[in-house]
Amino acid sequence: MPGLWAAVRRWVLSEGPALWPALVAMLVVGGGLWVGVPPPGREIRLTADAMAGTTLQQVRPSPTGEVDPRLGAAVDTILARRGIAVRQNNLQLFLSDVAPELRDEQRQLFENMRKLGMTVTYRRAEVWTNYEAVRRYGLATGTFRVSLRYQIAGSRLAQAATDVGYTYTVRDGRLFLVDDNDLDRAIGSGRQPWDYGPIDVVKRRNVLVVVDRGRLAYAERQADETVAMARKIRALWKGHLQIVPMVVAMREPGVLTELPPTLRGTEPTRVQPIPSPAVDGRPVGGWIVVRPEAQATFDSAQLSHALMHLLPVRLGEEAPRWLVEGMAQYAESRQLVATGRAKQVAAAREDITRRSLGDLVRLPADDEFLATDSDGISWLAVEHLIKQVGLRAVTDFYVQVARRGYNRPAQERLLLEYTGFTEQNLVDALRTLAQ
Protein backbone atom coordinates (compact mmCIF):
# COMPACT_ATOMS: atom_id res chain seq x y z
CA MET A 1 0.00 0.00 0.00
CA PRO A 2 2.78 2.56 0.76
CA GLY A 3 4.23 1.86 -2.69
CA LEU A 4 0.87 2.55 -4.30
CA TRP A 5 0.47 5.88 -2.53
CA ALA A 6 4.05 6.86 -3.53
CA ALA A 7 3.29 6.12 -7.17
CA VAL A 8 0.09 8.19 -7.04
CA ARG A 9 1.96 11.07 -5.40
CA ARG A 10 4.70 11.05 -8.09
CA TRP A 11 2.00 11.03 -10.84
CA VAL A 12 0.13 13.98 -9.33
CA LEU A 13 3.30 16.04 -8.92
CA SER A 14 4.38 15.30 -12.50
CA GLU A 15 1.03 16.37 -14.01
CA GLY A 16 1.19 19.74 -12.31
CA PRO A 17 -1.38 22.16 -10.94
CA ALA A 18 -3.79 21.62 -13.82
CA LEU A 19 -5.27 18.56 -12.08
CA TRP A 20 -5.46 20.01 -8.60
CA PRO A 21 -9.01 21.54 -8.78
CA ALA A 22 -10.49 18.29 -10.02
CA LEU A 23 -8.63 16.28 -7.38
CA VAL A 24 -9.75 18.61 -4.62
CA ALA A 25 -13.39 18.27 -5.75
CA MET A 26 -13.11 14.49 -5.81
CA LEU A 27 -11.64 14.43 -2.34
CA VAL A 28 -14.34 16.74 -0.95
CA VAL A 29 -17.23 14.76 -2.46
CA GLY A 30 -15.73 11.35 -1.78
CA GLY A 31 -14.70 12.30 1.73
CA GLY A 32 -18.11 13.73 2.53
CA LEU A 33 -19.83 10.54 1.43
CA TRP A 34 -17.34 8.32 3.26
CA VAL A 35 -17.85 10.01 6.63
CA GLY A 36 -21.12 8.30 7.36
CA VAL A 37 -20.37 4.82 6.01
CA PRO A 38 -19.53 2.20 8.61
CA PRO A 39 -16.28 0.34 7.85
CA PRO A 40 -16.63 -3.00 6.05
CA GLY A 41 -17.60 -5.76 8.42
CA ARG A 42 -19.11 -3.42 11.00
CA GLU A 43 -22.77 -4.06 11.72
CA ILE A 44 -25.10 -1.19 10.84
CA ARG A 45 -27.19 -0.46 13.89
CA LEU A 46 -30.73 0.85 13.53
CA THR A 47 -29.79 3.78 15.72
CA ALA A 48 -26.87 4.77 13.48
CA ASP A 49 -27.18 7.28 10.67
CA ALA A 50 -27.92 5.60 7.34
CA MET A 51 -25.33 6.91 4.94
CA ALA A 52 -24.26 6.72 1.31
CA GLY A 53 -21.46 4.91 -0.51
CA THR A 54 -17.87 5.98 -0.74
CA THR A 55 -18.07 7.53 -4.20
CA LEU A 56 -20.76 8.99 -6.41
CA GLN A 57 -20.54 5.96 -8.65
CA GLN A 58 -21.22 3.68 -5.69
CA VAL A 59 -24.21 5.74 -4.61
CA ARG A 60 -25.82 5.46 -8.02
CA PRO A 61 -27.17 2.03 -9.03
CA SER A 62 -25.28 0.51 -11.94
CA PRO A 63 -26.85 0.12 -15.40
CA THR A 64 -27.41 -3.57 -14.64
CA GLY A 65 -29.52 -2.70 -11.59
CA GLU A 66 -26.93 -3.84 -9.09
CA VAL A 67 -26.67 -1.73 -5.96
CA ASP A 68 -23.51 -1.19 -3.97
CA PRO A 69 -23.89 -3.22 -0.75
CA ARG A 70 -23.29 -0.16 1.41
CA LEU A 71 -26.00 1.81 -0.32
CA GLY A 72 -28.36 -1.16 -0.06
CA ALA A 73 -27.58 -1.57 3.63
CA ALA A 74 -28.18 2.14 4.25
CA VAL A 75 -31.57 2.07 2.49
CA ASP A 76 -32.53 -1.11 4.34
CA THR A 77 -31.63 0.56 7.62
CA ILE A 78 -33.85 3.53 6.87
CA LEU A 79 -36.73 1.28 5.86
CA ALA A 80 -36.39 -0.82 9.01
CA ARG A 81 -36.36 2.33 11.11
CA ARG A 82 -39.62 3.52 9.51
CA GLY A 83 -41.42 0.33 10.46
CA ILE A 84 -40.12 0.48 14.03
CA ALA A 85 -41.22 4.11 14.29
CA VAL A 86 -44.81 3.30 13.30
CA ARG A 87 -44.97 0.41 15.75
CA GLN A 88 -43.55 2.54 18.60
CA ASN A 89 -45.59 5.63 17.70
CA ASN A 90 -42.33 7.58 17.35
CA LEU A 91 -42.90 10.40 14.87
CA GLN A 92 -39.43 11.86 15.38
CA LEU A 93 -37.82 8.56 14.43
CA PHE A 94 -40.13 8.23 11.40
CA LEU A 95 -39.04 11.65 10.12
CA SER A 96 -35.36 11.32 11.01
CA ASP A 97 -34.36 10.33 7.45
CA VAL A 98 -36.89 12.52 5.62
CA ALA A 99 -35.83 15.70 3.81
CA PRO A 100 -37.36 18.90 5.27
CA GLU A 101 -39.49 19.60 2.19
CA LEU A 102 -41.19 16.22 2.51
CA ARG A 103 -41.79 16.15 6.26
CA ASP A 104 -45.31 17.62 6.34
CA GLU A 105 -46.53 15.02 3.87
CA GLN A 106 -44.75 12.20 5.69
CA ARG A 107 -46.07 13.40 9.04
CA GLN A 108 -49.61 13.08 7.69
CA LEU A 109 -48.85 9.61 6.38
CA PHE A 110 -47.58 8.58 9.81
CA GLU A 111 -50.70 9.95 11.53
CA ASN A 112 -52.98 8.12 9.09
CA MET A 113 -51.21 4.81 9.58
CA ARG A 114 -51.46 5.20 13.33
CA LYS A 115 -55.19 5.96 13.09
CA LEU A 116 -55.72 2.81 11.09
CA GLY A 117 -53.76 0.82 13.66
CA MET A 118 -51.26 -0.39 11.08
CA THR A 119 -48.13 -2.36 11.74
CA VAL A 120 -45.78 -2.03 8.79
CA THR A 121 -42.51 -3.32 7.45
CA TYR A 122 -40.73 -2.06 4.36
CA ARG A 123 -38.76 -4.29 2.01
CA ARG A 124 -36.45 -2.91 -0.66
CA ALA A 125 -37.65 -4.64 -3.83
CA GLU A 126 -35.71 -3.31 -6.82
CA VAL A 127 -33.83 -0.31 -8.09
CA TRP A 128 -35.62 1.87 -10.63
CA THR A 129 -34.10 3.93 -13.42
CA ASN A 130 -35.14 7.51 -12.70
CA TYR A 131 -33.24 10.05 -14.76
CA GLU A 132 -35.55 12.88 -13.76
CA ALA A 133 -34.72 12.36 -10.08
CA VAL A 134 -30.99 12.38 -10.87
CA ARG A 135 -31.41 15.66 -12.78
CA ARG A 136 -33.46 17.12 -9.95
CA TYR A 137 -31.42 16.00 -6.94
CA GLY A 138 -27.96 15.24 -8.30
CA LEU A 139 -25.87 12.23 -9.18
CA ALA A 140 -25.92 10.73 -5.68
CA THR A 141 -29.59 9.75 -6.07
CA GLY A 142 -31.35 6.41 -6.25
CA THR A 143 -35.00 5.42 -6.65
CA PHE A 144 -36.34 2.12 -5.35
CA ARG A 145 -39.55 0.19 -5.59
CA VAL A 146 -40.33 -0.76 -2.01
CA SER A 147 -42.81 -3.37 -0.83
CA LEU A 148 -44.88 -2.06 2.07
CA ARG A 149 -46.14 -5.02 4.12
CA TYR A 150 -48.91 -4.16 6.54
CA GLN A 151 -51.62 -5.42 8.83
CA ILE A 152 -54.48 -3.43 10.31
CA ALA A 153 -55.21 -4.04 13.96
CA GLY A 154 -58.65 -5.49 14.56
CA SER A 155 -59.14 -6.59 10.96
CA ARG A 156 -57.92 -10.16 11.51
CA LEU A 157 -56.85 -10.19 7.88
CA ALA A 158 -53.54 -11.73 6.90
CA GLN A 159 -50.57 -9.53 6.04
CA ALA A 160 -51.16 -7.43 2.93
CA ALA A 161 -48.79 -5.60 0.62
CA THR A 162 -48.64 -2.57 -1.62
CA ASP A 163 -45.77 -0.98 -3.54
CA VAL A 164 -44.33 2.48 -2.96
CA GLY A 165 -41.59 4.36 -4.77
CA TYR A 166 -38.93 6.06 -2.65
CA THR A 167 -36.15 8.32 -3.92
CA TYR A 168 -33.07 8.91 -1.78
CA THR A 169 -30.23 11.34 -2.23
CA VAL A 170 -27.11 12.31 -0.33
CA ARG A 171 -27.03 15.65 1.46
CA ASP A 172 -24.23 16.64 3.80
CA GLY A 173 -22.97 13.09 3.90
CA ARG A 174 -26.37 11.63 4.84
CA LEU A 175 -28.96 9.71 2.89
CA PHE A 176 -32.38 11.38 2.89
CA LEU A 177 -35.80 10.43 1.52
CA VAL A 178 -36.57 13.28 -0.87
CA ASP A 179 -39.51 11.95 -2.89
CA ASP A 180 -42.22 9.34 -2.35
CA ASN A 181 -44.26 9.67 -5.53
CA ASP A 182 -41.75 9.20 -8.35
CA LEU A 183 -43.26 5.80 -9.18
CA ASP A 184 -46.93 6.67 -8.74
CA ARG A 185 -47.60 6.52 -12.46
CA ALA A 186 -45.17 3.70 -13.20
CA ILE A 187 -46.51 1.18 -10.67
CA GLY A 188 -49.79 2.71 -9.51
CA SER A 189 -48.58 3.51 -6.01
CA GLY A 190 -49.75 6.35 -3.78
CA ARG A 191 -53.44 5.47 -4.02
CA GLN A 192 -54.09 3.81 -0.67
CA PRO A 193 -56.60 5.37 1.76
CA TRP A 194 -53.76 6.61 3.96
CA ASP A 195 -52.16 8.53 1.07
CA TYR A 196 -54.84 11.23 0.73
CA GLY A 197 -54.58 13.73 3.54
CA PRO A 198 -56.18 13.58 6.99
CA ILE A 199 -58.61 10.72 7.62
CA ASP A 200 -61.05 9.52 10.25
CA VAL A 201 -61.39 5.83 11.00
CA VAL A 202 -64.26 3.98 12.67
CA LYS A 203 -63.88 0.39 13.78
CA ARG A 204 -66.54 -2.01 14.85
CA ARG A 205 -66.20 -5.69 15.47
CA ASN A 206 -65.69 -7.13 11.98
CA VAL A 207 -66.02 -3.73 10.23
CA LEU A 208 -63.69 -0.85 9.39
CA VAL A 209 -64.69 2.43 7.69
CA VAL A 210 -62.30 5.11 6.41
CA VAL A 211 -63.45 8.64 5.53
CA ASP A 212 -61.95 12.12 5.13
CA ARG A 213 -61.32 13.89 8.42
CA GLY A 214 -64.36 15.82 9.57
CA ARG A 215 -66.86 13.17 8.42
CA LEU A 216 -66.85 11.07 11.57
CA ALA A 217 -70.65 11.10 11.94
CA TYR A 218 -71.00 9.73 8.39
CA ALA A 219 -68.44 7.04 9.15
CA GLU A 220 -70.28 6.02 12.33
CA ARG A 221 -73.55 5.59 10.41
CA GLN A 222 -71.80 3.67 7.66
CA ALA A 223 -70.10 1.39 10.16
CA ASP A 224 -73.37 0.60 11.93
CA GLU A 225 -75.11 -0.17 8.64
CA THR A 226 -72.21 -2.33 7.45
CA VAL A 227 -72.38 -4.39 10.65
CA ALA A 228 -76.11 -4.98 10.09
CA MET A 229 -75.81 -5.82 6.39
CA ALA A 230 -72.79 -8.09 6.86
CA ARG A 231 -74.82 -10.08 9.36
CA LYS A 232 -77.59 -10.50 6.78
CA ILE A 233 -75.18 -11.52 4.02
CA ARG A 234 -73.58 -14.10 6.29
CA ALA A 235 -77.02 -15.51 7.03
CA LEU A 236 -77.74 -15.65 3.30
CA TRP A 237 -74.44 -17.31 2.47
CA LYS A 238 -72.70 -18.77 5.47
CA GLY A 239 -68.97 -18.73 5.87
CA HIS A 240 -67.69 -16.97 2.76
CA LEU A 241 -67.83 -13.23 3.42
CA GLN A 242 -64.42 -11.94 4.47
CA ILE A 243 -64.02 -11.53 8.22
CA VAL A 244 -63.85 -7.72 8.17
CA PRO A 245 -65.57 -5.63 5.49
CA MET A 246 -63.22 -2.72 4.78
CA VAL A 247 -65.17 0.31 3.53
CA VAL A 248 -63.64 3.48 2.08
CA ALA A 249 -65.88 6.51 1.49
CA MET A 250 -63.60 9.41 0.61
CA ARG A 251 -64.06 12.47 -1.56
CA GLU A 252 -60.91 11.71 -3.56
CA PRO A 253 -61.91 9.77 -6.72
CA GLY A 254 -58.39 8.39 -7.18
CA VAL A 255 -58.31 6.36 -3.98
CA LEU A 256 -57.61 2.68 -4.65
CA THR A 257 -57.80 3.09 -8.41
CA GLU A 258 -55.58 1.07 -10.72
CA LEU A 259 -53.20 1.81 -13.56
CA PRO A 260 -54.21 1.60 -16.31
CA PRO A 261 -57.60 2.89 -15.15
CA THR A 262 -60.50 0.48 -15.41
CA LEU A 263 -63.65 1.30 -17.32
CA ARG A 264 -65.91 3.55 -15.31
CA GLY A 265 -68.67 1.46 -13.79
CA THR A 266 -72.28 2.35 -13.18
CA GLU A 267 -72.49 0.83 -9.71
CA PRO A 268 -72.13 3.10 -6.66
CA THR A 269 -69.26 0.98 -5.36
CA ARG A 270 -66.34 -1.05 -6.61
CA VAL A 271 -64.26 -3.67 -4.85
CA GLN A 272 -60.49 -3.36 -4.88
CA PRO A 273 -58.56 -6.50 -3.91
CA ILE A 274 -56.03 -6.27 -1.07
CA PRO A 275 -52.92 -8.03 -2.41
CA SER A 276 -50.91 -10.50 -0.40
CA PRO A 277 -47.10 -10.48 -0.28
CA ALA A 278 -47.18 -14.25 -0.80
CA VAL A 279 -45.66 -15.66 -3.97
CA ASP A 280 -49.05 -16.56 -5.45
CA GLY A 281 -50.31 -13.02 -4.84
CA ARG A 282 -53.71 -14.27 -3.71
CA PRO A 283 -55.67 -11.35 -2.20
CA VAL A 284 -56.23 -11.43 1.55
CA GLY A 285 -59.46 -9.46 1.22
CA GLY A 286 -60.90 -6.42 -0.48
CA TRP A 287 -61.81 -2.77 0.03
CA ILE A 288 -65.36 -1.65 -0.75
CA VAL A 289 -64.88 1.79 -2.27
CA VAL A 290 -67.97 4.01 -2.32
CA ARG A 291 -67.72 6.42 -5.22
CA PRO A 292 -67.74 10.09 -4.15
CA GLU A 293 -70.81 10.93 -6.22
CA ALA A 294 -72.78 8.04 -4.70
CA GLN A 295 -72.05 8.58 -1.01
CA ALA A 296 -75.00 10.86 -0.27
CA THR A 297 -77.55 8.30 -1.53
CA PHE A 298 -75.73 5.06 -0.70
CA ASP A 299 -78.19 2.81 1.15
CA SER A 300 -78.44 -0.61 2.78
CA ALA A 301 -79.60 -2.37 -0.40
CA GLN A 302 -76.62 -1.07 -2.38
CA LEU A 303 -74.35 -2.05 0.50
CA SER A 304 -75.73 -5.61 0.39
CA HIS A 305 -74.88 -5.71 -3.31
CA ALA A 306 -71.35 -4.47 -2.60
CA LEU A 307 -70.76 -6.99 0.18
CA MET A 308 -71.58 -9.82 -2.21
CA HIS A 309 -68.83 -8.53 -4.50
CA LEU A 310 -66.29 -9.32 -1.80
CA LEU A 311 -66.86 -13.01 -2.53
CA PRO A 312 -64.83 -13.22 -5.78
CA VAL A 313 -61.90 -11.60 -3.97
CA ARG A 314 -61.77 -14.42 -1.47
CA LEU A 315 -63.01 -17.38 -3.52
CA GLY A 316 -61.46 -16.66 -6.91
CA GLU A 317 -62.40 -14.75 -10.05
CA GLU A 318 -63.22 -17.54 -12.48
CA ALA A 319 -67.00 -17.43 -12.00
CA PRO A 320 -68.93 -16.09 -15.02
CA ARG A 321 -69.99 -12.51 -14.53
CA TRP A 322 -73.68 -13.32 -14.91
CA LEU A 323 -73.40 -15.40 -11.74
CA VAL A 324 -71.37 -12.79 -9.84
CA GLU A 325 -73.70 -9.92 -10.73
CA GLY A 326 -76.79 -12.09 -10.41
CA MET A 327 -75.94 -13.04 -6.82
CA ALA A 328 -75.23 -9.41 -5.93
CA GLN A 329 -78.52 -8.26 -7.48
CA TYR A 330 -80.33 -11.06 -5.67
CA ALA A 331 -78.97 -9.87 -2.31
CA GLU A 332 -79.86 -6.27 -3.15
CA SER A 333 -83.44 -7.18 -4.12
CA ARG A 334 -83.92 -9.04 -0.84
CA GLN A 335 -82.86 -5.96 1.11
CA LEU A 336 -85.13 -3.73 -0.97
CA VAL A 337 -88.05 -5.98 -0.04
CA ALA A 338 -86.97 -5.97 3.61
CA THR A 339 -87.02 -2.16 3.66
CA GLY A 340 -90.52 -1.88 2.22
CA ARG A 341 -89.70 -1.54 -1.47
CA ALA A 342 -91.24 -4.79 -2.71
CA LYS A 343 -93.26 -2.94 -5.36
CA GLN A 344 -90.05 -1.48 -6.77
CA VAL A 345 -88.54 -4.97 -7.01
CA ALA A 346 -91.66 -6.41 -8.64
CA ALA A 347 -91.77 -3.58 -11.18
CA ALA A 348 -88.09 -4.09 -12.06
CA ARG A 349 -88.61 -7.85 -12.47
CA GLU A 350 -91.60 -7.28 -14.75
CA ASP A 351 -89.75 -4.70 -16.83
CA ILE A 352 -86.71 -6.94 -17.43
CA THR A 353 -88.96 -9.90 -18.22
CA ARG A 354 -90.94 -7.93 -20.77
CA ARG A 355 -88.00 -6.20 -22.46
CA SER A 356 -85.27 -8.83 -22.42
CA LEU A 357 -86.39 -12.41 -21.81
CA GLY A 358 -88.67 -13.10 -24.77
CA ASP A 359 -85.84 -13.05 -27.32
CA LEU A 360 -83.08 -14.30 -25.03
CA VAL A 361 -80.72 -16.77 -26.72
CA ARG A 362 -77.84 -16.90 -24.21
CA LEU A 363 -76.73 -15.51 -20.88
CA PRO A 364 -74.75 -12.22 -20.92
CA ALA A 365 -71.05 -12.58 -21.72
CA ASP A 366 -68.50 -11.13 -19.32
CA ASP A 367 -67.71 -8.18 -21.61
CA GLU A 368 -71.35 -7.14 -22.15
CA PHE A 369 -72.16 -5.61 -18.79
CA LEU A 370 -72.17 -2.03 -19.94
CA ALA A 371 -75.49 -2.97 -21.54
CA THR A 372 -78.35 -1.99 -19.24
CA ASP A 373 -80.20 -5.30 -19.27
CA SER A 374 -77.25 -7.59 -18.48
CA ASP A 375 -77.53 -7.01 -14.73
CA GLY A 376 -81.26 -7.62 -14.79
CA ILE A 377 -81.01 -10.80 -16.85
CA SER A 378 -78.31 -12.10 -14.50
CA TRP A 379 -80.49 -11.36 -11.47
CA LEU A 380 -83.46 -13.25 -12.92
CA ALA A 381 -81.24 -16.16 -13.97
CA VAL A 382 -79.87 -16.56 -10.42
CA GLU A 383 -83.29 -16.02 -8.86
CA HIS A 384 -84.76 -18.72 -11.09
CA LEU A 385 -81.99 -21.17 -10.22
CA ILE A 386 -82.53 -20.56 -6.49
CA LYS A 387 -86.28 -21.12 -6.85
CA GLN A 388 -85.71 -24.37 -8.72
CA VAL A 389 -82.79 -26.00 -6.87
CA GLY A 390 -82.36 -23.97 -3.69
CA LEU A 391 -79.87 -21.43 -2.42
CA ARG A 392 -77.38 -24.03 -1.17
CA ALA A 393 -76.96 -25.65 -4.60
CA VAL A 394 -76.40 -22.27 -6.24
CA THR A 395 -73.86 -21.10 -3.67
CA ASP A 396 -72.02 -24.42 -3.86
CA PHE A 397 -71.87 -23.99 -7.63
CA TYR A 398 -70.53 -20.45 -7.16
CA VAL A 399 -67.73 -21.63 -4.85
CA GLN A 400 -66.59 -24.32 -7.27
CA VAL A 401 -66.84 -22.31 -10.46
CA ALA A 402 -65.06 -19.31 -8.85
CA ARG A 403 -62.08 -21.55 -8.21
CA ARG A 404 -62.20 -23.83 -11.25
CA GLY A 405 -64.29 -22.24 -13.99
CA TYR A 406 -61.34 -21.12 -16.06
CA ASN A 407 -63.09 -21.83 -19.38
CA ARG A 408 -66.58 -22.28 -20.80
CA PRO A 409 -66.56 -26.12 -20.79
CA ALA A 410 -65.57 -26.13 -17.11
CA GLN A 411 -68.31 -23.63 -16.26
CA GLU A 412 -70.90 -25.64 -18.17
CA ARG A 413 -69.86 -28.90 -16.50
CA LEU A 414 -70.02 -27.38 -12.99
CA LEU A 415 -73.39 -25.73 -13.67
CA LEU A 416 -74.86 -29.07 -14.70
CA GLU A 417 -73.27 -30.93 -11.78
CA TYR A 418 -74.52 -28.58 -9.06
CA THR A 419 -77.85 -27.36 -10.43
CA GLY A 420 -78.96 -29.89 -13.02
CA PHE A 421 -79.20 -27.10 -15.61
CA THR A 422 -77.18 -26.44 -18.72
CA GLU A 423 -76.91 -22.83 -19.85
CA GLN A 424 -79.33 -23.55 -22.69
CA ASN A 425 -81.82 -25.14 -20.26
CA LEU A 426 -81.60 -22.02 -18.08
CA VAL A 427 -82.05 -19.68 -21.06
CA ASP A 428 -85.07 -21.66 -22.24
CA ALA A 429 -86.60 -21.49 -18.76
CA LEU A 430 -86.08 -17.73 -18.59
CA ARG A 431 -87.66 -17.28 -22.01
CA THR A 432 -90.81 -19.04 -20.83
CA LEU A 433 -91.21 -16.42 -18.10
CA ALA A 434 -91.92 -13.82 -20.80
CA GLN A 435 -94.74 -15.83 -22.38
Amino- and carboxy-terminal Cα gap: 99 Å
Count the DSSP helices. Answer: 17
Overall geometry comes to: elongated
Instruction: Tally the beta strands.
Output: 9
Concise summary:
By secondary structure, the protein is an alpha+beta fold. Helix content is 48%, strand content 16%.
Give me some keywords for this one:
elongated, 16% strand, alpha+beta, disordered N terminus, 17 helices, 5-stranded mixed beta sheet, 435 residues, 4-stranded antiparallel beta sheet
Structure commentary:
The chain has 435 residues and is α+β, with helices and mostly antiparallel strands. The chain is built from 17 helices and nine strands. It has helices at 2-15, 20-35, 56-59, 69-88, 91-95, 103-116, 131-137, 184-187, 216-236, 300-308, 310-315, 321-338, 342-357, 372-389, 391-404, 408-419, 423-433; strands at 118-128, 141-152, 160-171, 174-179, 199-204, 207-212, 246-249, 269-274, 285-290. The strands form two sheets. The chain has a five-stranded mixed beta sheet with strand order 5-6-7-9-8, sandwiched between helices. A four-stranded antiparallel beta sheet has the order 1-2-3-4. Helix 9 crosses helix 10 (300-308), helix 12 (321-338) runs antiparallel to helix 13 and helix 14 crosses helix 15 (391-404). It is elongated. It starts with a helix and ends with a helix. Residues 1-56 have low confidence and may be disordered.
